Amino acid sequence: MAKKPAAKKMPVKRPAAKSAYARAGVDIDLEATAIRALIKNLSYRRKGKAKMMGAVGHFAGLIDFGEQALALTTDGVGTKMLVADQQQDWSTVGIDCIAMNVNDLYVMNVEPIAFVDYIATDKLSIDKMAQIGIGLNEGAKQANIDIVGGETASLRGLVNGLDLAGTCFGMQKKDKIISGDKIKPGEKIIGVPSTGVHSNGLSLARSVVEKYAGYDKKFVGKKTFGQELLTPTRIYAESLKVAATCTVHGMCHVTGGGLLNFNRLSKHGFRFDSPITPPAIFGWIQKAGDISAVEMYRTFNMGMGYAYVVPKASVACVLKMVPGAQIVGEVVKEPGAFLGDLEIT
Known about the structure:
Blueprint (H helix, E strand, L loop, with lengths): L19 H4 L4 H13 L11 E2 L7 E5 L2 E9 L3 H8 L5 H14 L4 E11 L4 H18 L2 E9 L7 E12 L14 E6 L8 H11 L5 E3 L2 E2 H5 L9 H7 L4 E4 L15 E4 L7 H10 L3 H5 L6 E7 L4 H7 L4 E7 L3 E4 L2 E3 L1
Parallel strand pairs: 4-5, 11-14
Antiparallel strand pairs: 1-2, 2-3, 3-6, 4-6, 7-12, 7-13, 8-9, 10-12, 11-13, 14-15
C-alpha cells in the first residue's frame, strides 16, 4: 500500500517581540493604528467659508481664511510630568508644553500667535500651579505668543496626578505655507541640535533610569538624572527667519517616533548618513537598557530636535543662520526613513 505523502508542517507564527518602549507602556505601532481608526471616522467637512485645507496628518491643521491660512495644533507634556513630580520641580514643564505646540507650527512656516492651556488634576496645588505658570510664561516669551486663556479641571477618580496640555493658534499667508510638497530626491537634510530628551520617549527613559540609576543619582557634572530629563524642549523660533531668507522645501519637528516623523513630509524617503552625535543621555539609555539603535531612533530625537529639507543651493544659507546645524542626510526616491542602510519601521 502506497504511503501517503507526509503532511507539510505549517510554520508557526510567533508574535513579534515587544519593543523596549512598548514594554515601558507606549506601543508606537498600536498608537498609529488607533489614530488611523479615529481619523477614518472624521469625515465631516464644514460648509461655507473658512474650510479646512489639506488632510489630517501633518504637524498642524490648516484653515482657509482668504489670503491667510489659520493653523491649529495641540500637544502636552506627557509623562515628563511624573519626573517633575518626583523632583518636586514644575518650573520648566510649561516651556515644554509651549514648545511641543509651537514647533509643530514652525515646520509649516506658520507664526504662532496665541495659546490656551488645559490642566487636569486630581488635586489642586497652589505651589505646583504657580511653578507651571512660570514655565508657561517663559515659553510664551521665547515663542512670542499670548496665552489668552485655558481650563483647569479637577478630576479626582479620573486623573491621578496632573496632566498639562495646550492648543496653539497661528497664521501665515497661504503662499508661504511649507508643506513638503516641493521636496525632491537629492535635496539635503540639515539637522538642528536638541537640548536632550525633550518631551518624547519619557516612558522609556524613565523606565531605564528608575531600573538602573535613580533620579537623584549624579549623571554628568553636577546634574542628576532627574535634572537631565527635566531639561526643557528647545523652541525653534528662528525657523521663521530661516524660511523667509533661505529656500526651504520642508521642515520637521522630531518628536515621538523619532525619524519616522519625516514620513509626514513627503512620498519620498529620507536617508540619514551623518546624524548629529547624540548627547550622553541617549548613549547611557541605550547601553543601560540594551536597546537597539533602530529602536532608539524610532523613539527619541537622538540629538536632532528639528530639521530643514533644502535644495543643495540653500545649504550654506541655512548653516549660516542656524548655529550648530549640520548636514545629516538627503532625500531619496524610496519611501521611508533610513539610518544609513537600516530602515526605521
